[in-house]
Amino acid sequence: MNSWNLIGLLAWVILIAYLIFIVWHIRQRHIKAIVKSGKQVRGSVVLIDIAEVLVFAIAAIGMVWVSWLRPIDYRDSRAVAISHSAEHLILQTGEDHSFYVRVQTGNGKNPTLYYTYWTNGAKYENTSHNAEVSAGTQPLTPRAAGYPWSKKDLKKLDQTADQAYVATVTARYKPGFLNGLGMHVGNIADRFSILRVPNDTFVEIDPVKD
């Protein structure tokens, strides 16, 4: 574990310890108030209870946000490190035609697409959550355009790889307080791949089976 992530681990330990303290403290305070007055708990005691629970709720919501709900800002170089990679696709021989990418659709209820492609003898699989096929005149697709790319590098790849490559952008969390608090430092924040093919005929599609 990256040492920065110890910040988040310590924060969760403190939060759990505070929850245990609240439960114990509320119980002790109520018992003391009842023994002292012999009646129901006074409103001032209840207000203290509410204040302690509110502090815990705010802290818990903050930890949930920073751990799971915090959006990724690709323009924030202090939060994430962006890297790019590319590999040539290897042409495969099918029953009807040759192809670079095989696309399998979902089961009729799941709209996710499943991509299979080959690079330098290695077989890879990806889904439409993290990849998209590009078969147009421009390498960037509408979804891929939401990620940081160098158009110059993609155009160069179009020329050097004959429009048959997989280009991947990876965002990795950098050391920092918020990333450490969310226990993300060193982990991949997001990854997206462009599966570039010359045209649609180089894509083999397996439809939904009945």
Keywords, separated by commas or semicolons:
210 residues, alpha+beta, 2 domains, four-stranded mixed β-sheet, 4 helices
Q: What this model shows, in words?
A:
With 210 residues, the protein is an alpha+beta fold. The chain has two domains: 3-69; 80-206, no CATH class. The chain contains four helices and ten strands, in the order H-H-E-E-E-E-E-E-E-H-E-H-E-E. It has helices at 6-37, 43-69, 151-160, 177-181, and strands at 80-88, 92-93, 98-99, 101-104, 114-119, 122-127, 131-134, 165-173, 188-196, 203-206. The protein has a four-stranded mixed sheet with strand order 1-8-9-7, with helices on one face. Strands 6-5-4-10 form a four-stranded mixed sheet, with no helix packed on it. Strands 2-3 form a two-stranded antiparallel sheet. A hairpin with a 4-residue loop joins strand 2 (92-93) and strand 3. The radius of gyration is 27 Å and the shape is elongated. The two termini are 46 Å apart.
Which SSEs are present, and which pair or pack?
Layout: H1 6-37, H2 43-69, E1 80-88, E2 92-93, E3 98-99, E4 101-104, E5 114-119, E6 122-127, E7 131-134, H3 151-160, E8 165-173, H4 177-181, E9 188-196, E10 203-206
Parallel strand pairs: 4-10, 7-9
Antiparallel strand pairs: 1-8, 2-3, 4-5, 5-6, 8-9
Helix pairs in contact: 1-2
Keywords: Membrane, Transmembrane, Transmembrane helix
InterPro entries: LVIS_2131-like
Transmembrane segments: 6-24, 45-68
